[in-house]
Amino acid sequence: MAILNVNNISCGYGVKKVIKDVSFEVEAGEFVGIIGPNGTGKTTLFRALNKLLPLSKGKIYYKQKDIAHISAYTLAQETATLPQFLQMPFSLPVEEFVAMGRFPHLGRFRGFKKHDIECIERALTLTDTTKLKGRNISELSAGERQCVFLAQAFAQEPKLILLDEPTAHLDITHQVTIMDIISRLNREQGLTVLIVLHDLNLASEYCNKLILLKDGGVYKQGESAQVLNYQNIEAVYNTVVVVEENPMSKKPYVLLVSEQQRSRRC
After folding, report:
1. What phi and psi, each to the nearest 5 degrees, are found at residue 156?
2. Mean per-residue pLDDT over the chain, rounded
3. Which CATH architecture has domain 2-224?
4. Which of 150, 163, 185, 229 has its Cα between 20 and 30 A from that of 260?
């Protein structure tokens, strides 16, 4: 059953329409990646899914309910969001920051109970950030900070998590660490994942379904082998690539072709 249903939505900024007639479904327990070139509407779509951008057309349903009629407080009890750029107006100790993930579950004037503390500790353990307790967010490296952001999201106990390029600007070690953590929660706890990714190979390796955007619309969606072939990539990204099979996972692996090699090919 679909946990998220995006039904023919359009949206943008002022008179500029960025997302145009986009439709897709995310089944409970799926790991779905949204990919596409810069400027094609990935982040705009992400903002619409988070109710940060009004729709000019269509509907978004969470568990068959129109999210326009679900309060942000209620939605946060089942869904977590990790934007690409998380603003930190002030620094907090890591444990306090992660604990904020429990706020949607707290009633008025209610403090943390045993279950809340357990959720916080579990989130710190899952993301290997227990060792960072006592340190401030501002003291952390980009990779450590991203793990802490994930910990806060996991502390919410979400059924669905929405992530906008969580591996951007990270080295390969932290990219794999972040994706492994998300994948583990997806496999072991049934967490449904919808993630915007810039790296096609990360998307291929971790997602079981991909949605490829072009000019604000859905160009192709399906399993990685159906989406990540050289014809689709060249048509959408307007560049030459070679797509091989990853010898370990058997999933598509995209190889870039330099200008020098392209000239030889011609």
Report:
1. -70, -15
2. 92
3. 3-Layer(aba) Sandwich (3.40)
4. 229
